[in-house]
Known about the structure:
Elements (H helix, E strand, L loop, with lengths): L1 H18 L3 H13 L6 H14 L2 H13 L6 H13 L3 H13 L6 H13 L3 H13 L6 H13 L3 H13 L6 H13 L3 H13 L6 H13 L3 H13 L6 H14 L2 H13 L6 H14 L2 H13 L6 H13 L3 H13 L6 H13 L3 H10 L5 H13 L3 H13 L6 H13 L3 H18 L1
Helix pairs in contact: 1-2, 1-3, 2-3, 3-4, 3-5, 4-5, 5-6, 5-7, 6-7, 7-8, 7-9, 8-9, 9-10, 9-11, 11-12, 11-13, 12-13, 13-14, 13-15, 14-15, 15-16, 15-17, 16-17, 17-18, 17-19, 18-19, 19-20, 19-21, 20-21, 21-22, 21-23, 22-23, 23-24, 23-25, 24-25, 24-26, 25-26
InterPro entries: PPR_rpt, TPR-like_helical_dom_sf
GO molecular function, one term: mRNA binding
Protein name: Pentacotripeptide-repeat region of PRORP domain-containing protein
Amino acid sequence: xxxxxxxxxxxxxxxxxxxxxxxxxxxxxxxxxxxxxxxxxxxxxxxxxxxxxxxxxxxxxxxxxxxxxxxxxxxxxxxxxxxxxxxxxxxxxxxxxxxxxxxxxxxxxxxxxxxxxxxxxxxxxxxxxxxxxxxxxxxxxxxxxxxxxxxxxxxxxxxxxxxxxxxxxxxxxxxxxxxxxxxxxxxxxxxxxxxxxxxxxxxxxxxxxxxxxxxxxxxxxxxxxxxxxxxxxxxxxxxxxxxxxxxxxxxxxxxxxxxxxxxxxxxxxxxxxxxxxxxxxxxxxxxxxxxxxxxxxxxxxxxxxxxxxxxxxxxxxxxxxxxxxxxxxxxxxxxxxxxxxxxxxxxxxxxxxxxxxxxxxxxxxxxxxxxxxxxxxxxxxxxxxxxxxxxxxxxxxxxxxxxxxxxxxxxxxxxxxxxxxxxxxxxxxxxxxxxxxxxxxxxxxxxxxxxxxxxxx
Length: 457
């Protein structure tokens, strides 16, 4: 009895250290326990496997299995579920399948969570048919599906573009007596919103209210974001007011979503009022809130106030992210302060932000709009990473500068490289050539565009 209690206490200590990412101390506790005659059990090692999977990596977690076997402890279904979940987190489908097969080979019967995780991995890897087969196996086997099984299936279908099938599954489950919880409703509402089916999302929201469940902050925020995304701003603001009445605006996320929408609407005064209200309500600002505020100041042309916020962020113990710097670079470019934008871009590189393509795109566009097209072309040539926006922006700006032949060459190099470019940019080049009297060149370019699309799209 004392030994079991001691092992239980050992496991509590290890779990506590693992939760705060102090794995070395957790390992030291095991060694101390063995010295005192308190031996670890399967729970001890499962806690370590889960922690290594979450904080270090799948290989480090898998190495714990060898130590388990050396200690005479056999891994169980929980051990393998943690490993499969770790592989799934990093979209390692083949590794997940190997672990599942290894579990079966070891004579360990998988449980519903094993199947749920495998199903989730198939969905994450863009293989909905295989995920559906796993779901069918669960239904036809002796394993009873749990609400999470249905949630994984509905979420996976929505994220893979099968929202209609997700809704159909939801209805079938209801007919067979399944009572959905708030999580299921939120998943379906989110999927419907992202696929642009706002009407269907509202129907589900109405059913949610009629079911006796109360919509939560996630439900309202999802609907609100969908309204703003589909440019139904007034309806989005109505949802926000309803959130406030029900006390769901307890963090900065909802406020920042509304402020962003108001800025897009050009309602800067209202955006300022909303920001002031958020601060008055004592809501603590996070980096997203600061980014929203910096964007607001940039839109108003208050660049000094925006720059001052960078100091405030650092004093508050937070770190600016790449979006903070990108917003500021964009604001400086739009204010015509190209030198300031370039200095900040160099500062951003010096701070170690590698993936700053969006910042480069903003600076490139700013150079062109300031009439520095040649400098923009030199910068373009030096850029290692380029995306559709890079090409589209430069083609548009070359057309504005009436340099249609240069725009034509850039357009073709983009398409021949397999890169997509906005149709508006393509039209700008063709229309520009025609309006400048280069009708024959426009016809040739049109044919070359069609050929490039056939070979690469």
